[in-house]
Amino acid sequence: MTEINERDRAVFEAGIKLGALYHQFVGTPISMDTANDLERMIEQSAIVQPYVRSISVSIDRGMVQKKQNPTFRYCELEGRMLHVSLQVLYKNTIAYAELAYDEEQDYPLMSIKKIESM
Amino acid sequence: MTEINERDRAVFEAGIKLGALYHQFVGTPISMDTANDLERMIEQSAIVQPYVRSISVSIDRGMVQKKQNPTFRYCELEGRMLHVSLQVLYKNTIAYAELAYDEEQDYPLMSIKKIESM
Amino acid sequence: MTEINERDRAVFEAGIKLGALYHQFVGTPISMDTANDLERMIEQSAIVQPYVRSISVSIDRGMVQKKQNPTFRYCELEGRMLHVSLQVLYKNTIAYAELAYDEEQDYPLMSIKKIESM
Amino acid sequence: MTEINERDRAVFEAGIKLGALYHQFVGTPISMDTANDLERMIEQSAIVQPYVRSISVSIDRGMVQKKQNPTFRYCELEGRMLHVSLQVLYKNTIAYAELAYDEEQDYPLMSIKKIESM
C-alpha cells in the first residue's frame, strides 16, 4: 500500500468525467441536425467541472443515420455513438483518456491513453 | 368508458415530453456561462420528437448562481430551476403545457394550461 | 377551447410518468440476474409519485440476453426492452397507459389504452 | 511520460464507476420506504460491471426526510444524499474509492482512499 499521489488523482478524475457524461447524456433524443449542438453541450458540461483541461466529443453520424427512426427521423444517443477525448490536469499531471467504440468487443470502451508531468 | 380521442393524445404526448426532458437533463453540470446553451439543447431534444410544435426552456439564473459551488463555480441542473412552455400538436389539437417551479408547494409542477382545436 | 378537465389531468399525468421513468432508467447497467430487481425498482419510483394507482414493469429477457456483452455479461437498459402498464387515478378518472416496443415501427411506443370514470 | 500500469487502470475504473452511478441515478423519485431498495439497485448496477469487487451504497435518510415534499411525500435522489464505498480489482491491484458528501465544501466528493496490491 502506498500514498495516493498526483498521478492517481488525475487518472481518477478522468474516469469520473467519462462515467458521468456517458450516463448523463445516453438516452438524449437526437437527429442529424442536432448532433453538433449536443456534442458541444456535452463538452461544456465537462469543461465546467474541476480539473478538466480540454475535451472533444464527436457523435458517429453514420450510426445516428442508421438508428434514426424512419417515421420520426430521430433516435436516442447511445454510448457506442460517442467518441470522447479528454484531458484532465491535476496539479502538474495530465491524464489523457478516451471513450471509443470497440468494434471487436462491441463495447463503448473507456481507456487511459497517456499520463504526463508538465 | 369512452374512445381515446385527439385531445387525449395531444395531452398525453405533452406529458411524455415534459417527463422525459426533466429526467434526461436533471443532474447535468451547469454554470452561468453554459445555461444558455443547455436551454437551447433541451429545446432541440424536444423538437426532434413527434408532435412537438414548439418549446421554450429557461433556466433560473438566480438559482444557478445560488447553487453554484463557491470553489468549483458550477452546479447541477435541478428540476426547480426549469421553466418550460411546450406546445404539442396532434392532428388538429394543440395542447399547451408548462413546467414551472411552484414556490408554495416547493415543487416543480407540470400542468396543462390550455387545449385548442385548430 | 375548453376548460381543462379531470380526464385531461389523468391522461397528462400518465404521460409524465412514462416519459420520466423511461429517461431516468435507460442506460442502467443490467444483467439477467438483476433484471427482476430493476423492474421492481422502476415500479417503486413510479408508485411514490402523485396519482399513480398501479404499475407493472417487465424487461424483455430475450433482448437482455442478446444485447449482453459476451465478455462482460451485462448490457444497458434500452427503451425497447421495457414493457410498462400504468394506471393513473386523478380524482374519479383512471387513465390506463402503456409503453411497449412496436416491432413494425421499431419504436418504444407509449399509448393511452383506456380512460374510465369510477 | 510513463506506461499505463495496473494501478492506473484500477484507479481509472473506480472513477468511471462512481461518475456513472451518480449520473444514472440522481433524479430518481424516492421515499423513506423505497430508499433501501434503491441502495441495493445502485449496488447491483455497479456489481454487473467489469472489475467491481464490492460496493456499498447508503442514502442519507435524514436528507430524504427533509427534502420530501410534504404533500406528495417523496423527493428525488440527490448526489449529496449518496454515500458509496467501492472496491475495484484490476488484475492484482485493488483501488478503494468513496463518494461522500463534504459538508464544508457543500459538495458530493469522490475520492481515492487506498490502493493495494494483493
Automatic annotation (TrEMBL), chains A, B, C, D:
HAMAP family: DHNA_arch. Residues 6-113 form the Dihydroneopterin aldolase MtpD C-terminal domain. Its EC number is 4.1.2.25. Keywords: Lyase. It comes from Candidatus Methanoperedens nitratireducens. This is Dihydroneopterin aldolase. It catalyses: 7,8-dihydroneopterin = 6-hydroxymethyl-7,8-dihydropterin + glycolaldehyde. The gene is mptD. Belongs to the archaeal dihydroneopterin aldolase family. InterPro entries: DHN_aldolase_MptD (IPR027508), MptD_sf (IPR036839), MtpD_C (IPR007181). Pfam families: DHNA (PF04038). GO terms for biological process: tetrahydromethanopterin biosynthetic process. One of its GO terms (molecular function) is dihydroneopterin aldolase activity.
